[in-house]
Amino acid sequence: MTLAPHKKAKALKSTSRRPAKELCSECGLCDTYYIHYVKEACAFINQQVAELETQTHGRCRNLEHSDDCYFGVYQEMMAAQKREPLPGAQWTGIVSTIAIELLNRGMVEGVVCVQNTPEDRFQPKPVIARTPEEILAARVNKPTLSPNLSVLEQVEQSGMKRLLVIGVGCQIQALRAVEQQLGLEKLYVLGTPCVDNVTRAGLQKFLETTSRSPDTVVHYEFMQDFRVHFKHSDGSTETVPFFGLKTNQLKDVFAPSCMSCFDYVNSLADLVVGYMGAPFGWQWIVVRNQRGAEMLETVREQITTQSVTSQGDRRAAVQQGISAYDQGVTIPMWAARLMGVVIDQIGPRGLEYARFSIDSHFTRNYLYVKRNYPEKLAAHVPDYAQRIVEQYKLPD
To answer: What is the dihedral of CA 162, 164, 170, 176, to 10 degrees?
Structure first.
C-alpha cells in the first residue's frame, strides 16, 4: 500500500481531532503529523487486514484452513516458557527479553514500548527505549487504551533506521499503513493478543467491581483456567471465575473500539507472544514471517518450548455464553466457582480454548457493530470474522 508523501507541518498535528470519533482506540497516530493518513490507516475507518497481511507476510490468510482463519498467517506456532523468568515480568518475560536482545545485538536502535507514569501504575506512557533498563521499565501489560504511535514523530526526528515496535492490533494496523513513510531500513513488530481494553476510569470500575483489593493490583489477566488472575503488590494472587463477573455492571466498561475489533490475534505483527493458545502457565508464540523468526531466534537458547495442542469442543459453551452476556446474566459467586471448576476439567484447552475466546468475542462484537453501527457492518467485519460468526445463532 502506497500513500502520498506526508506534509510535516505542525499544523497537521492535533490532539483533539479524532476522525474515528467514538470508535477511536487512541492508538496515537492522530497525535502526530501522520494524522494526514488516518482515514486510510485507522482500523476503525478503513478495515484492510487482508491487504496489509499480503503487504506484510507475502500472503493473506487462507479461509479454507481453520488455523489460518482463526490465528492468521503463520510459519510456526508453539508454547514456551523462559527458563530463568525475568524478575517483575507479568509472566516469564519473553517479550522484554526479545526486545533487550534485539537492542543489545544492534538489530535495532530503539524500542517503542509502554512504561507507566510515576503517578499511576496503570497510566500508559509510550517511550522509545534505548537501553535495557528502559525496556525493563515497560514490563507488565497496561490494560488501558495507549497512544503507542504518538512517538512516531520522535522516531523520524531521531534519525533511527532500525526499530522494534511492541503493540496491539489496532496500533499495528495503523503502523503498517504508514510503514513506508517512516524512512526505516528495518522494522520489527512484536505483537501481543489484545481484547477488551478500557479507559483508566473503566479500569478502576472493573477493579473495584471484581477484586478484593483494587488498590493493590499490580497486573491481571483472563487466563486459560476460566479465571481472572490478579497479582497484588504483596505478592499474593487472587482468582475470580469468569462466570462470577458482574456482567450487568461491566457490559459498558469496555472501549467502543474494543467492542468493534476483530483482530484479537494481532495478525499484522511479525511475532506474537501471548497466552491464549498455550497450556496454563505457558506462553503462546506465533511466528508469522521471516522477521518474526529472526526475533525468536535471539531467545531460542533461553526458552523451553513444546508443541501446541487442542482438546475439547468450544461450540456449546460459546453459544450459551452469547445469550448470557447479551442479557447481562450474573450468578452467585459460589455457583460461579463450582462452574469454573467443572469447565476447567472438561472444557476446551490449548488451541480450542483460543478458538473459544475468539468466537466469544467475535460474536459479541459483531452484535455490537450490528446494533450500534449497522451502516459499517458489511465493510468493517473481515471475511474471516464473518465465517467464524456464521457458526452461531445470534439474537437480533
So the answer is: 30
Q: Does any domain span residue 313?
A: no
Please compute the mean of the pLDDT values over residues 33-37 and round it to a whole number. Answer: 93
In a domain, residue 295? The reply is no
Q: What is the DSSP letter of 208?
A: H
Q: Which residue shows C-alpha cell 469447565?
A: 343
Determine phi and psi for 172, rounding to 5 degrees. Answer: -70, -35
How far, CA to CA in Å, does 284 sit from each of 179, 241, 354?
Answer: 26, 22, 10
Which pTM was predicted? 0.92
pLDDT reading at 217 higher than 90: yes
- Percentage of residues of the chain with pLDDT beyond 90: 74
The reply to whether 165 falls in a domain is yes
What are the Cα distances from residue 296, in Å, to 188, 279, 351?
A: 11, 20, 20
What is the domain extent for residue 108? 12-73+87-197
Number of domains in the chain: 1
Angle made by CA atoms 50, 55, 60, in degrees to the nearest 5: 35
Residue 245 in domain:
no
Distance from C-alpha of 257 to C-alpha of 277, rounded to nearest angstrom: 24
Residue 333, pLDDT > 70, answer yes
DSSP secondary structure letters along 119-145 = TEEEEEEEEEE-SHHHHHTT-S---B-
289 near 56, Cβ under 8 Å?
A: yes
pLDDT in tens, 38-81: 999 999 999 999 999 999 999 999 999 999 999 999 999 999 99
Strands (E), the chain: 76-82, 110-117, 120-129, 162-167, 186-191, 217-222, 227-232, 237-241, 271-274, 283-287, 303-306, 310-311, 349-350
Say which amino acid occupies 260.
Answer: S
Question: H or E stretch including 384?
Answer: helix 383-389
Residue that is written with C-alpha cell 524478575 in the block? 87
- Say if residue 195 is exposed, middle or buried (CB neighbours under 10 Å; 0-12, 13-18, 19+): buried
